[in-house]
Amino acid sequence: MNYTSQDLPTAAPADHPDARFDVANRLFLRLYQASNLMHKTGTRAVSRHNATTQQWAVMGALSRPSARERGMTVKELIGFLMVSRQNLAGVLARLEDLGLVERVRGADGDGRLRHVRLTPEGERVWRDMLGDIRGYYAAALDGFTTEECVLLFRLLDRLRDSLDGLPAPPTPG
What we know:
- Strands 1-2 form a two-stranded antiparallel ribbon.
- By secondary structure, the chain is mostly helical.
- The chain has 7 helices and 2 strands; from the N terminus they run H-H-H-H-H-E-E-H-H.
- It is 61% helix and 6% strand.
């Protein structure tokens, strides 16, 4: 169901903390639902390439002009994609097994650092995936104007920055 802000039921005036909690609760649930659907439908969109949305994200990060030649360190990928080392390790292992990414010594003089980059086969598969990805984006955003997409992008950026700035929860001790 599509709600407008007027449709959201609240038992308190709009400026009351309970109303804000109700809206926040629904917003985070909606983001959770959208994220799950994005993973499910996105994986379906690139399934003929035997790829998942996680592999798509890693390959997309590595295909950017700033990363194409040099690659990215695992730490840079973790920061860029905002994933855990454990989650990324499995995705990278699978992409390496498929011959789509490789780890190379950094050209920056520090031989200890390994950079992950697309192999020539990975670049070919990425180019092949782009048609399906473009179609997926077009279908998913069909009901949005370009201006609405830009607004949503900016709002999600603000939310991401706000979430990223939250203090880490205390560790149980």
